[in-house]
């Protein structure tokens, strides 16, 4: 059976322009690590299960809002910066089209294209102002002006995934268990599963990705647990 070349298959690449995957992954991991560390810290200090739940829920709400607003502002600011640079490039193409065409050709020559051919292609592109603008922005800024990430997609995905991640280590408390170590164990499983899911999008080993996230979260939890324990002992908590 002959395999169809990837170039002939429609949509053989994943959509990497929507801007949702990075904030979703960051949100989920941050939610998990933040609340696991919070729970470990206050639990290590010897507070009651009710206080642990209150701390975790406060961390969930505050963190989710902060992540959503931060992602929206960050992505929108980045898009606005790109738009400003695109406008600058548009003005240059209108004022100095020949010089801009030569600049584009020189970029292609530097990549190995014969000079005559590079000049011919640049001259042909110059006749289509919108395509010329798109080509110059790609070459000079390294971005596609028509495929900028959505700030709303980034904000919503970050908000939701942080909330889900932060909820995981609280689940055992919410259903009636009071063991700190059980909650941390569930959080650790959540970290491993989240890392394994991320591997689905990156073609990495699910086992390696999951273990990496688990170890990072465990390190954060260990640090805050130690701090909580020391403060609890010194302050006489519990």
UniProtKB/TrEMBL annotation:
Record has DNA repair as a keyword: no
Superkingdom as given in the UniProt entry: Bacteria
Compartments, as annotated in UniProt: Endomembrane system
Segment forming the signal sequence: none
Keyword Signal: no
Membrane topology designation: Multi-pass membrane protein
Keywords: Membrane, Transmembrane, Transmembrane helix
Transmembrane spans: 20-40, 52-70, 152-173, 180-202, 214-233
Family matches, as InterPro entries: Ccc1_fam (IPR008217)
UniProt-listed Pfam families: VIT1
Name of this chain's protein: VIT1/CCC1 transporter family protein
Protein species of origin: Micromonospora coerulea
Highest classification ranks of the organism: Bacteria, Bacillati, Actinomycetota, Actinomycetes, Micromonosporales
